[in-house]
Amino acid sequence: MTTEPSAYHQRVAEEKRAAILRAATRLFLDSGYDRTSLAKIAEAAGVSKATLFKQFPTKAALFDAIVTESWQAGDGDEEAPPPGDPRAGLALIGRRYVALLTRPDMADLFRIVIAELPRFPELAESQFRRGKMPYFDSVRRYLEAERDAGTVRMEDPGLAATQFLGMISNYVFWPRMLLPHWSPDGPAMERVVDEAVLMMTARYAEA
Question: Which PROSITE patterns does this entry report, sorted A to Z (predicted)?
Fold first, then answer.
């Protein structure tokens, strides 16, 4: 007979999982993916190796979890804006995207992938499949909902999602990969989002 874990044990397991993810992200960044062992991660997280292996049996599974969590907007439970007002909806999505891209762990994660790409191309595949694509799909679905509501006219919502996110990330995020001190202030990022929304509505909004 099996029993459900108590609320206390669930909370402890969640706290240990969070500690493992934090320790793994830091060690991957400091030492590289290849030179970081699960044993070192367990020690840095303050958990036993058995506890770590129970949650993440392989280093690849642990990296997948880091990617998935890093790409979750907010607390991971934010709903898409309701269709009907594409300007307001895109503005909300754009500001959420800025908040996501400016998390310290997001830039760190990309640096891990870029540094280890020649030896571990599967890390880039994980970043794309478990992180970027689910987020991109959520924006594409929002644009499809706006199209179905008759507020925008577009043949390819996927292309439109790429255009919108690209206008924001090309200013807010990608320069940080080459310029360590790139840190635009809040008003500058707000303006980028506002301009991206204006571009999208000028191109796609129904008159």
Answer: HTH_TETR_2
Question: Model pTM?
Answer: 0.85
pLDDT for 50-78, tens place per residue?
Answer: 999 999 999 999 999 998 888 886 544 57
Give the count of domains, the chain.
Answer: 2
Give the list of residues 6+ apart from residue 61 with CB closer than 8 angstroms, or none: none
Could you tell me if 184 and 171 are in contact, meaning their C-beta atoms sit under 8 angstroms apart? yes
Task: Give the SS3 label for residue 152.
Answer: strand
DSSP secondary-structure letter at 58?
S
- Same domain, yes or no: 32 and 126: no
If one counts every other C-beta atom within 10 angstroms of the C-beta of residue 167, the result is 18
DSSP classification of residue 81: P
Q: Does 90 lie in the same domain as 188?
A: yes
Q: Which helix (H) or strand (E) holds 57?
A: none
- State the CATH number of the domain containing residue 166: 1.10.357.10
| Whole-number Å distance between alpha carbons of 155 and 152 | 10
Cα–Cα distance, 186 to 128 (Å, whole number): 28
CA 126 – CA 112 distance, rounded (Å): 12
**CATH code assigned at 25:** 1.10.10.60
